[in-house]
Every structure is written in C-alpha cells, then in structure tokens.
Amino acid sequence: MNRSIIPLLCSFLLLSASSASAFNITKILSQYPDYTNFNDLISKTGLASEINAKSTITLLAIPNGAIGDLTSKSNDVVKKILTTHVVLDYYDTMKLQKLKDKTTKLTTMFQESGKASNDQGFLNVTAKDNTFVFGSAVKDAQRDSRLEKSVMNQPYNISILGISQPIVTPGIDSPLAPSSAPPPKANTPKSSPPKAESPAEEEAEAPTKEDITEAPAPSKDADSPSADSPPADAQSPSSSSAEKLKISFGFFVLLASMVAAY
Ligand SMILES: *[C@@H]1O[C@H](CO)[C@@H](O)[C@H](O)[C@H]1NC(C)=O
Ligand SMILES: *[C@@H]1O[C@H](CO)[C@@H](O)[C@H](O)[C@H]1NC(C)=O
Ligand SMILES: *[C@@H]1O[C@H](CO)[C@@H](O)[C@H](O)[C@H]1NC(C)=O
C-alpha cells in the first residue's frame, strides 16, 4: 500500500467524523404525538437546526398537556427557555441511576448562548421519590420537573427524556432581582413587561468573566465515547447535508482507488 495515502486517508476519516450530523430532531419528535407542541416550538424558534448540529445531547421534552403559556411568549423568550431544556451531554435513565451522590449539575445550551448569568445556564438533577427531578441550578429555584419517561435514546448521541413540566429559570424572561444578579441598567423601567426585551437588557445579561470560567470544559469527564469531540466543533455551521454527502463520496472514491492501486 502506498505510504503517502495513509495520512490522507486519516484526514478524510477525521473530516467525515467531525461533520457528521447524528440526527434530525424534528423527525425524531414527530414520531411521538405527546410532544407535537414542543416539536413545533423547537422548529419555530430555529432551535431544531442548532440541536441537529450537536453530536451529543439530552433533550428534556415537555408534553403537550404541560406546555402551558410557552406558546404565548415571544419567540426570543421561548427560545431562551427551550435552550435550558437542551443538555450538552448524553444522559439516559441508566446513566442517571448511576449518578454519584444521586445529584449532578448539567450544562445546557443556554450557557453557550452567552446570555446566561449566575447559574442560569445550568440545571440540577437530583434523585427524588423514585424518579429524578430537574430544575434550574440558580439558587433557590423551584425544582419540580419530574422525569416521567425515557422517550427515546440513541447512545451516546441523543437521549430524549419526558419531563412533567417546563423548567423555570429565575430571571430568564426578565432581569434578575438585584440580590442574586448584576443589577439591570439603571434606565430599565422596572414595570416594563417581560416581553419587551431591549438590546440594552440583553447587554446587561451578558455573562461576567466569572460565568465563563465557571463553565465546565466540554464534557472531558463524560464517559461517553464521543466526549472527545468538543461541542464547539459540532456547532460549526458548515455541516450541511450536501457537504457531508460530498465528503462521504470523496472518502469512498479514495477507498476505491486505494483498493484498485493495491
Ligand atoms: C454519533 O455522533 C458521532 C459524531 O460525534 C457520529 O460519528 C456517529 O455516527 C453518531 N452515531 C449515530 C448512531 O448516529
Ligand atoms: C428533518 O425532518 C423534517 C421532518 O421529517 C424535514 O421536514 C426536514 O427537512 C429534515 N431536516 C433535515 C435537515 O434533514
Ligand atoms: C442539587 O440541589 C439539591 C437540593 O437543593 C442539592 O442538595 C444538591 O447538592 C444539588 N446538586 C448539585 C450537584 O449541586
């Protein structure tokens, strides 16, 4: 076998691995009638394609009956809320049951957005009453989104866990109370409705240096095999299906020519 072809082959393999999209979340969720509203919101907010660009996620899905007023909030706010339901690691019920100390802190897609302050981008999951309870990791947040069932999983790329009700992250659709967060800009009227999110408010919510350093390194500690592909990589917008096809095709052509040469 020609020696010079080996490094080339390796780079092709790497390329096709890093640009692989593991799933189509819209298609997966469409098979579960309990989650049609949730699926619609994920598409409407453009979150579906961001989720598809990931190779390792756990989605906390809200059933139709519990979607509540999420459908009446602004697209921007709904998107922020839904990103707190996307965990940037793989957790199925088996992995939850093996949790050390029966509790852990999870990093969500909201943390990546740069809009999270304090612990808004993290969840706390804790074993309770023979199931698990998810909630915001923000201090004193209510944590009562119970794990109801495992909807589907495809280890170690995607797991969908059905939860009883939306996760409520304090301050996610309005500036946080001054006691627990950097104070909102002085000219922000306190009585403004939560929907009116001016760019200035967004700025006020930008993460502090502390938040950034607090973010755990991309799941190095995770025991899933895909842990060595950093999330940033998976996010690259270049992973269109056409490109993937081209790469796979290139790879096969290469393989075929190697076999022929041999
Ligand atoms: C899981 O994701 C990796 C990329 O991280 C991909 O190569 C692999 O094909 C995916 N597995 C499945 C079953 O889709
Ligand atoms: C994902 O699946 C949906 C529904 O089947 C389809 O409309 C959409 O085009 C798919 N998206 C991609 C990127 O393949
Ligand atoms: C999650 O919250 C519970 C209850 O407040 C707490 O006891 C536990 O230590 C928290 N877990 C983590 C990993 O912070």
From TrEMBL:
Bias (Low complexity) ranges: 187-197, 215-242
Check the record and name the InterPro entries matching this protein. FAS1_dom_sf (IPR036378), FAS1_domain (IPR000782), Plant_FLA (IPR033254)
| Superkingdom in the source lineage | Eukaryota
Q: Which residues form the signal peptide?
A: 1-22
The FAS1 domain sits at: 22-159
Looking up PROSITE patterns in the UniProt record yields:
FAS1
> Where's it found, cell-wise?
Cell membrane
As for what it does, the entry says: May be a cell surface adhesion protein.
The protein's name = FAS1 domain-containing protein
Origin species: Solanum verrucosum
